[in-house]
Amino acid sequence: MTAALRVANPGLLTTVQDLGRPHAVASGVSPGGAMDRFAHAAANLLVGNDRGAPTLECTVRGPRLLAEGPCMVAVTGADLGLRVNGAEAPTWTAIALDEGAELSFAGRRSGTRAYVAVGGGIVADRWLGSASTDLLVGRGGLRGRALMEGDVLEAAAQADPPPVGRSLPEDLRPRYSDHALHAIPGPHPVPDIFGPTFQVSAASNRMGYRLDGPAVHAGGDELLSFVVVAGAVQVPSGGRPILLMADHQTAGGYPVVAVVAGAWLPVAAQLAPGDELRFVEASLDDALAMRASQREALDSLTSWSL
Amino acid sequence: MPPPRSRIRIRIVPLGDSALFAELTTRLDTALNTRAIALAAALQKRRDVRRATAAHGTVTVRFDPDQVTHEALAAAVRRLAGKRPPVEEPGRLHRIPVVYDGPDLEEVASRLGISTRELIELHARPIYRVFLVGFVPGWAYLGPLPDQLVLPRRPTPRTQVPAGSVAIAGRETGIYPFPTPGGWHLIGRASVRLFLPDSDPPSLFRTGDRVKFFEGEA
C-alpha cells in the first residue's frame, strides 16, 4: 500500500464510492455506492482494477489532487474539465501521473459526477462490506465523510498495470445528453408519468431527485411501507414525483409508479438541479438489451495486449 | 400424499429490470408477515437472488438478470409462497422502558376520547411485532396497535423529531432512532439504541422480532 494522492482542494463534494452495501437494506441502511455504476466500472477497468474497486465520486466542481508517487489514473463520467499539470487531458483514458503531478478540473462542461480510479484501487474504511461513504451515518470511505484539504489517499500496490493511453471509445460510452430515461411501469402504475418533461429541483442529492413539473395523480393513499430500489419513481400525495438514487431511504409508503431501467441510471446520475428529463415507457426486453450492450462495452476493457 | 398447500393470492410485478415485488397482502397482517419473512428467507438461498427483503406483507427481491428471467423467478416465488409455511419460531423479545411524556400525549388521548392513563396502558399492553426494519437505519415499524389507538398521521409533519421519540400512526408504533422529520404522534421517549453501527447487522430489531413496551425510566 502506498500513498497515492494528496488532496490540495476537495472540490464541492468528493467521496469514496464502490458498489455499496445492498445487504444492509434489511437494517434500514441505504445501499449507497457510486451513482453512475458504468463510469465507476469503466474507470476501474481502464487502470486494471476490479470493476467494483473504490473510486472517487467528484460532484460538479472537481478536486485538485497531487500525486505522491507515480500512479495510473482514469477519469470517467461527467466532463468537469480534466487537467493534468494544467493542460487539458482526456477522460475515459488511462493516464500515468509522475510524482508531484497535479490532477485538477477546470470547470463543469457537461454531466454532474466524474469518477477517479487509481491503479491498485483506493484503500478506504470498509463498513458493512463496502468502502462507500455513507454521509448520513458517517461511516465508510474516508472516515465517513467527504474529502478535505490535506487528506492523503492510499492505493493498493499494482503488479501488472495495463497500458497507458488505453481508452473507451466514445460510441461505447453512455449518451448522457439524452435525458429520456427508459423506465418500466412499477407496482402502482399511472400513465401520467410517461411523456411530460420534469425538471430536477434544487432539493436533489445522492438520496434522490425531487421533480418539478405537472402533478402526477397516483391515488395518494399511503401504503404500508415496502422495500424500494434505486431508480424507483415515488409519488407522494402532493403529486410531485421523487426519483430515488443510490443513497435512497430503504423503504417507503408512497406509490411507485415506474422504475428507471438499470442501464439508464448512469444518465440519471449525471443530472443536476435545473436539468430536464422525461420518462419513456420501456419493456423488460428493452431494458435488458441496453444492459447487455453496456456490459459488452465494459467487457471490452477487461483484456488488453501490449 | 403431497403436503397440504395453503392457498395464497400473490401479486408479482417487476421493480425495474433487476428486481421484483411480491405482494401477499396490502394490509397489516401478522400471519402474512410471517409468510413474507419465510418467503424472503427461502428466496435468499437461490444463487440468482442478490437480496430478498420482507416488509409487512411484501417481499422485494433484487436478482441477477444474467442468471434468471423475471418470469422464471416469478414462477419460483409463486411455488415457494404456496408451500406450507414453516412453524414460526417466535422472534426475539425486546422489553423497552418508555417514559410517556410525549408532546402529543394529551392531544392524542383527547382525540381518541380516552384518558392519558388509558392511552399509556393500551400502548404498553400488547406484544408488538416488527413488520419491517427500514426507512432510516434502525427504524422499525411495530404493530398492530390496539384498535382504540388508531389515528391518521399528523397533517403537517414536524421538521425535526428528537431521537428516542416513541410515536404512533395508523395501526403502527415505532421509535425514532435519529433526529429526523416525522409525521407520527409523539407519545413518549425511550433511550434504547436502535442503530448499532459497530454491529452487523447494525440494527437492534430484526423483522419478525417482538417488542414489549413498559412504563419506566428511559
Number of helices of chain B: 4
In terms of DSSP E residues, the strand content of chain A is 25-35%
Helix run count of chain A: 3
Q: What's the overall geometry of chain B?
A: elongated
What's the Cα radius of gyration of chain B?
19 Å
The largest beta-sheet of chain B arranges its strands as 1-2-4-3
Name the overall outline of chain A.
globular
Please identify the structural class of chain A as seen in this structure: mainly beta
Mean pLDDT across the residues of chain A is 95
**What is the average of the pLDDT values of chain B?**
93
Largest interface: A-B, 42 and 44 residues
Low-pLDDT windows of residues of chain B: none
Can you describe this structure?
- The complex is a heterodimer of chains A (306) and B (218).
- With 306 residues, chain A is mainly beta.
- In chain A, 10% of the residues lie in helices and 32% in strands.
- Chain A contains 3 helices and 21 strands.
- In chain A, strand 14 and strand 15 form a beta hairpin.
- Chain A starts with a strand and ends in a 7-residue tail after the last helix.
- The relative contact order of chain A is 0.18.
- With 218 residues, chain B is an alpha+beta fold.
- In chain B, the strands form 4 sheets. Chain B has a 4-stranded antiparallel sheet with strand order 1-2-4-3. In chain B, strands 5-13-6-7 form a 4-stranded mixed sheet. Chain B has a 3-stranded antiparallel sheet with strand order 10-9-12.
- The mean pLDDT of chain B is 93.
- Classes of the chains: A mainly beta (306), B alpha+beta (218).
- The interface between A and B is large, with 42 and 44 residues.
